[in-house]
Amino acid sequence: MTQRQILVCLDKFRGSASAVQACRWLAEGIRQAAPGLRVREAPVADGGEGTVAAFRAAGYRTVPVPVSGPTGEPVTAELAVLGTRAVVELAQASGLHLLPAGRAEPLAATTYGTGELLRAALDMGCREIVLAVGGSATTDGGAGVLRALGARLLDARGGELPPRGAALADLETVDLTGLDPRLRDTRLVLASDVDNPLLGPDGAAVVFAPQKGADAEQVAVLEAGLSRLARVLARQTGTDLSGRPGAGAAGGAGFAALVLGARREAGVAVLLAELGLDTALAEAALVVVGEGCLDAQSLRGKAPIGVAELARRAGVPVAAVAGRLEVPLAELARHGIDSAHSLTERAGSERIAMAETRRLLHETGAELAHRFG
């Protein structure tokens, strides 16, 4: 009979550990406390930062690609590739963490580099591409993506607009005739845990642009630009995609993906299918989920909750480990989580929890080993 295992499925602890590191450190604590226990590490992500690393852990190879960063500076991003399937992580090219000196540029930031990553995947012969969105610095409606793939954004005089959010208010025409023809034979998946539309009070500018440094006046400018982009494309194509779930993801990059024919799937669902967690759960005595902050937003389909609900359906107990725990255990229980552990509570302060994440994950792993081993 196969010995049952502890399955460690942690997302990143932002600012102190990647998903791969968090899983490794917790697993080290389990193994040191109970050397006879089988432990499998399966880092997860929900479509944002860390998605390529999670797919690498699932057996994909990574390919470095030089692209433009969110404000045009050169950066090196990575694709995850397996056969003719590729994963493009928007944050690798257009992420907040790539802004020079951390200076927010909500009006100027562009997704052009993400479009370059998509083009690189096509150049490699990939015909199934997952576009994982999240953690963006941008609110350009995916205009940069479209331009990098051959579209032209034109003003009333026929001049080409720069692919940034602030410029979209002057948009008159989007010429899609030059789009890369290989896209017609490519299956594109928009992987996102965000179901917001492009426009309005729940849209990309109003909800997310302030997180990217936009003040009220800049939010209004960005909303006007996104609205103009949606109207122009609806007029030209006969279809208005701005209200579709996920159109507002990553500052509207989700909208561009939908324009390109993408099918939206929850980011965590895409990864869990790739990891083959159904099989792993059949051998699991315990699943450990978690991320840096387990809060109300986590309950809206983010990676830890996606894994926990899958485990619940398989009848496997779940423990949550978080840097900060902001959801009552009773609420977590409704999502299949049986126990929860906060590194901040263990450390006595958030500062110590951030500085000593490895030690605290070791200690938490040892506690779990003694309890469930």
From TrEMBL:
InterPro entries: Glyc_kinase_flavodox-like_fold (IPR018193), Glycerate_kinase (IPR004381), Glycerate_kinase_RE-like (IPR018197), Glycerate_kinase_sf (IPR036129). GO terms for biological process: organic acid phosphorylation. Keywords: Kinase, Transferase. Pfam families: Gly_kinase. One of its GO terms (molecular function) is glycerate kinase activity. NCBIfam families: glycerate kinase (TIGR00045). Belongs to the glycerate kinase type-1 family. This is Glycerate kinase. It comes from Kitasatospora viridis.
